[in-house]
């Protein structure tokens, strides 16, 4: 069974950059790449929060500096 899907808007320029990079990214579509990138970022965020539950603000700032979140 496939997960239910929803739409999320991203800037058109970012979408074009993803489309241009698809042959090198190893993903079939921009949607597949975005799903992969978000899953990777969420896993990193969850691992960081789990390893230091009392310091969430510092973790969020670190993820922001690494480019995982805006």
Give keywords.
single chain; 70 residues; mainly alpha; 67% helix; elongated
Account of the protein in words:
By secondary structure, the protein is mainly alpha-helical. It has helices spanning 12-25, 30-51, 56-66. It is elongated. The mean pLDDT is 86.
Give the SSE map.
Elements: H1 12-25, H2 30-51, H3 56-66
**Range of helix content:** 55-70%
- Estimated structural class: mainly alpha
Q: How many strands appear in the DSSP assignment?
A: 0
Percent in strands: under 5%
Element pattern in H and E: HHH
- The biggest beta sheet, please? none
Report the span from N to C terminus: 32 Å
Number of DSSP helices? 3
Low-confidence stretches: none
| Overall 3D form | elongated
Rounded mean pLDDT score: 86
Radius of gyration: 14 Å
Summarize, please.
The chain is an all-alpha fold. The chain has 3 helices and no strands.
């Amino acid at each position: 069974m496939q997960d239910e899907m929803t739409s999320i808007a991203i800037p058109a320029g970012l979408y074009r950059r993803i489309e241009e990079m698809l042959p090198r990214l190893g993903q079939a579509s921009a949607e597949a790449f975005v799903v992969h990138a978000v899953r990777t970022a969420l896993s990193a965020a969850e691992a960081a929060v789990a390893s230091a539950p009392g310091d969430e603000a510092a973790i969020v700032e670190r993820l922001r500096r690494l480019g995982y979140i805006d």
